[in-house]
Design brief:
This protein is an alpha+beta fold. It contains five helices and five strands. It has a single domain, classed as Sulfate adenylyltransferase.
């Protein structure tokens, strides 16, 4: 997890902040859903862009990372209310989301409702089994690079969000859009 900070992104955030009426000190990061050098099982630039585009169209409303990644990268957990400009593989902003839920739980405890938030697969919400298969493969690759074994008991960070700004897709945000992965454990 490597947040970006460069003049073009800072200017983009200033415009988003003004459009949303946010204070200058509103918590914000800019990064893609995964880093290009973390490509695992075909998860490269095209997949990164597809995920960013789903979020820009409000069709992806959640993402999941290993808690270990936050620790290794020295990146603090985001909190509900924080904003995140989702970047495409080339570093261009795809959209800005507001986190509405951040839950830490074992990989094995992630439920079907959160899996569905991650966005459609071939036009339909993913099943929990499909979500687990894809995420396990990605997380196993990360763990192998770190020299640790993947275990379904490893804690993951489930972030749910709403898209609040999208340059290509108008966004209307309901004021009380809340969801928490902790309520969905299965």
């Amino acid at each position: 997890m490597r947040p970006r900070s460069e003049p073009a992104l800072d200017a983009h955030w200033a415009g988003v902040r003004a459009a949303l009426g946010l204070p200058a000190d509103a918590p914000w990061t800019a990064m893609p859903f995964a880093e290009p050098d973390e490509a695992v099982d075909g998860f490269g630039a095209d997949a990164m862009d597809e995920l960013a585009d789903l979020a820009a169209r409000s069709m992806k409303r959640g993402t999941c990372h290993l808690l270990e990644q936050f620790r290794r990268d020295g990146f603090p957990l985001r909190r509900p209310g924080d904003h995140w400009t989702v970047l495409r593989a080339d570093g261009a902003p795809a959209c800005t989301v507001r986190l509405i839920g951040v839950d830490v739980l074992p990989f094995a405890d992630v439920g079907a409702a959160f899996a569905a938030l991650e966005g459609p697969e071939q036009g339909v919400a993913p099943t929990l089994a499909a979500w687990r298969r894809v995420h396990r493969a990605f997380f196993e690759g990360q763990c192998a690079r770190w020299g640790i074994a993947f275990d379904p008991a490893l804690e993951v960070v489930c972030e749910s969000f709403i898209t609040v700004h999208s340059p290509l897709h108008p966004v209307a945000v309901p004021p009380d859009d809340r969801w928490s992965a902790a309520a969905d454990r299965s």
